[in-house]
Design a protein that fits this description.
The complex is a heterodimer. Helices cover about 80% and strands about 0% of the residues of chain A. Chain A is an all-alpha fold. Among the domains of chain A are: about 80 residues, NADH-ubiquinone/plastoquinone oxidoreductase chain 6, subunit NuoJ (Four Helix Bundle (Hemerythrin (Met), subunit A), Up-down Bundle), CATH 1.20.120.1200; about 40 residues. In chain A, helix 1 runs antiparallel to helix 2 and helix 2 runs antiparallel to helix 3. By secondary structure, chain B is mainly α. Helix content of chain B is about 65%, strand content about 5%. Chain B is globular. The chains are: A mainly alpha, B mainly alpha. At the A-B interface, helix 2 and helix 3 of A face helix 3, helix 4 and helix 5 of B.
């Protein structure tokens, strides 16, 4: 059952991911991205990380992508127009892609230990409580640094927006 | 196998009751608004217009189903589907009552209890924005687009105070499972999160209710469908069953917000005061009172047809009152009664506010969310955190 669900949602995620790039219309691309995030959330659930799964949907699919869709709608961006494909891309595209995949798989095999096999349902400590304890004890410094980083980003966005207003 | 069968039966019962409630909620709303405005409301189809929802359903099904030309067809069809699905999912984690025995099998009056139940509701409701936003965009109509834009901006803004208001009662109850949330509030009204020591959540309750109004696009925050500015807003181009889907989504969201309010702040299925003080007799008393009022108006009819309908309702209410005095009925239905009574009260407030308040202006709406609700919710969360840390 778990394996079937994993396969179904992994395939959906990959297909939606390809669709993000293939689609010409920004809204359809954004919708595909939401599909990717939704199926990722299901994969997290299968692995036993229920809190991460819900956070994935709330934060990425529910907040960030709504802003994406909002901006696309506000600017009323139409379908992308295609120009003639460049010769370099046509000639080198496929070989480079294969080369990249080869490198990627080599490094994954080389540096990720292959001895641990993931079992569905074996991981039990994905609850909100466990994650909270981990965040506030073991990973306190990275957590606080990230929050300061996000705060700086927000301040930066406000400063940039103010400049635009004052003009 | 027994468990599987029981789950199927429970799901069927909940789905049937929910859909009927949604249809009749609209009847209740029209009646209440009508009486607030000194009108009669629906009164032609059936006694007191009680068959009006049925007539509406037939009307909506048989209406012509239009798809505007130049609409983005896929997204146009996806939007109402998304809106209604996302709004109906949340009911699956709501606990309606305590544990009961069905044919000797113990079971909870809840479809499923997730230990991230509350987060699931937040996640699903945040996905519901897409229904409205995409409907507005895909219709290829400027009024629809404006409605969709307004709704997505509004929902993103009000989700912040809503989530912050949810966080403070969680500090008191210390769990995300909706069933356990209710169980930590066991007892009389003094143990409910709204009045519970060390940090009563009255402010948080008010913020949650206001943000809930905005999240469900209800008056006074119904700018996405402001009819005197935007025709009908995001669903201008929708007709027939697709229009009905948006309607259902709105009412279903109302029910969800009411249920979550009751679970978070008002002690779920627990009675107002202790059983020792006779809270088990409250339902019988209330239904008996309703029956007596109906009988009185049946004997002194205002209109001619009341002479028949009112006594019938009176007898039905008195029958329910008598049933509530029986021990087996009490065991199952008294928690359910308290839960539904509280949810009904919140839903009535929704309708009451619609009959009372005018609509916000758009800039007022945004100012209110960011400059009033958000700081208030944040300070409340801080104070709650300090109090809980101090006293535990």
């Amino acid at each position: 059952m778990d394996v079937i669900l994993f396969l179904v949602f992994a395939i959906i995620a990959v297909v939606c991911g390809i669709n993000v790039v293939v689609q010409r219309h920004p809204i359809t691309s954004a919708l595909s991205l939401i599909g990717v995030m939704g199926s990722l959330a299901v994969l997290y659930l299968l692995l036993g990380a229920e809190f991460i799964a819900m956070a994935q949907v709330i934060v990425y699919a529910g907040a960030i992508m709504v802003l994406f869709v909002f901006v696309i709608m506000l600017l009323n961006a139409g379908a992308e127009e295609t120009r003639g494909k460049s010769l370099v891309a046509q000639l080198l595209g496929l070989p480079l892609l294969i080369l990249f995949l080869a490198f990627a798989s080599y490094f994954v095999q080389r540096f990720v230990p292959s001895s641990t096999i993931v079992h569905f349902g074996a991981f039990k400590s994905g609850t909100a409580q466990n994650i909270g304890i981990a965040l506030f004890t073991r990973y306190l410094l990275p957590f606080e640094v990230t929050s300061v980083l996000i705060l700086i980003a927000i301040l930066g966005a406000i400063v940039l927006a103010r400049k635009e207003l004052d003009r | 196998m027994n468990f599987f069968l029981l789950s199927v039966i429970k799901a069927a019962v909940v789905a049937f009751v929910l859909l009927t409630t949604l249809a009749y909620l609209q009847w209740v709303e029209r009646k209440v608004i009508a009486h607030i405005q000194v009108r009669l409301g629906p009164s032609r189809v059936g006694p007191h217009g009680l068959l009006q929802p049925l007539a509406d359903v037939i009307k909506l099904i048989t209406k012509e189903d239009l798809i505007p030309p130049y609409a983005n067809k896929f997204v146009y069809l996806l939007a109402p589907f998304l809106a209604v699905t996302m709004s109906l999912i949340s009911i699956s984690v709501i606990p309606f009552g305590a544990e009961i025995q069905v044919f000797g099998q113990p079971t909870w009056m809840q479809l499923t209890d997730l230990n991230v139940g509350l987060l699931l509701i937040l996640a699903v409701s945040s996905m519901g924005v897409y229904g409205v936003a995409l409907a507005g965009w895909a219709s290829n109509n400027k009024y629809s687009l404006l409605g969709g834009l307004r709704s997505s901006a509004q929902m993103i803004s009000y989700e912040l105070p809503l989530s912050l208001a949810v966080a403070s009662p969680l500090l008191l109850s210390n769990t995300l499972s909706l069933r356990q949330l209710v169980q930590t509030q066991a007892g009389s009204i003094l143990h409910w999160n709204i009045l519970r020591l060390p940090a009563p959540q009255i402010v948080s309750f008010i913020v949650f209710m206001i943000a809930g109004f905005a999240e469900t696009n209800r008056v006074p925050f119904d700018l996405p469908e402001a009819e005197n500015e935007l025709v009908a807003g995001f669903h201008t181009e929708y007709s027939s069953m697709k229009f009905a889907a948006f309607f259902m989504a709105e009412y279903s969201n109302m029910v969800t917000v009411a249920c979550v309010t009751v679970i978070l702040f008002l002690g779920g299925w627990y009675p107002l005061f202790a059983v020792a003080w006779g809270s088990n007799y409250v339902p019988a008393l209330l239904f008996g009172l309703a029956g007596a009022v109906c009988l009185f108006f049946g004997l002194n009819p205002v209109r001619k047809r009341d002479r028949i309908t009112m006594p019938v309702f009176g007898v039905i209410f008195l029958g329910i009152a008598a049933a509530f005095l029986l021990a087996p009925v009490q065991a199952i239905f008294i928690p359910l009664f308290w839960f539904l009574a509280k949810v009904g009260l919140i839903l009535f407030t929704f309708i009451w506010v619609r009959g009372t308040l005018p609509r916000f202006r758009y800039d007022q709406l945004m100012h209110f969310a960011w400059k009033v609700l958000f700081p208030v919710a944040l300070v409340n969360l801080l104070v709650t955190g300090l109090l809980v840390a101090w006293f535990s």
